Protein: Amino acid permease/ SLC12A domain-containing protein
Organism: Brassica oleracea var. oleracea
Amino acid sequence: MIPLVFLIFYEVSGGPFGAEGIVNVAGPLLALLGFIIFPFISCIPEALITAEMSTMFPINGGVVVWVSSALGPFWGFQVGRMKWPCGVIDNALYPVLFLDYLKSAIPVLSTGLPRVASILILTLLLTYLNYRGLTIVVSTLAGEVANPKQTLPKALCYSVIFVTLSNFLPLLSGTGAIPLNRELWTDGFLAEVAGTIGGGWLRVWVQVAAATSNMGMFIAEMSSDSFQLLGMAELASGVLLLSGLSFQDIVAAENMPYCGGMVLEFVAFVRMRVKHPAASRPYKIPAGTVGSVLICVPPIVLICLVVVLLTLKVAVVSFVMVMVGLLMKPCLDHMDRKRRVQFSVSCDLPEFQKESQEMEESLLR
């Protein structure tokens, strides 16, 4: 249980490292309130839904399998294509954040060739560790969890508490212990705060913790993305990465596809409750159909707020990313029918998911 809690923790948070920018932009009060309120709006509903759906589908693939079973392979492909690139983009940030916490101790890592070389070496090293078998267990890896009925719901519950406290308490201590200068609150500043409060040993401790955290998040994200790709492959899906866009544009634009993926996940959850109410659910949220809908309302409202705040440039890029996915799946299906490529369906998929896929294929033919 404890190892699983920590693995989920690294998959979704990893601690307060990188949260300094929230204080910079919003100030300490709103930053702290956000870490108190946000779990109730998004984290807890998402954890409950993940617990139910993961135990209902105890196989690799996660949300791709859920959405495919509820809405058909077309939308399963879309949710996978929306979420997987977001994970890849996030993974690119962890080596950078790793160095941001070390640059005060090793200034040569701040800029230039040493920084680029360090990022490359870190990426290759962590990828090798992942390849050697340091896999992570969350929703997309439910098939790898022993006794998911018992372990997943409890682990997700404890992880929400752990994630909230691990962000709230350090920011509370840091913003309250030293005079506030919001301009200084950038990535890596928590190490400087620790040095001011406790001296050099505490600064080093935070730097080591940040390094360990970012390594854990990198490995966790890569493992989860790999198993999500496995789920997409078993559902006759494929992935294309966007190219020709700046990294900053892609980072900004990933919010829209990710939000779209979350909405599909919530719709799939409600759809399965309505369409297959008697299906086996080792863990089931103690709420009826109306309660299931109400659970999804707060995070969807938050998602709508994120979409409304998008700039025009980011909205255009996001729209193009979504359209690519909408056109890609029919093209792959056409290639499959022409036998230019061939996809297979995993024998581990639930029967009602296979029925949904076969029905969609028959309509296309």
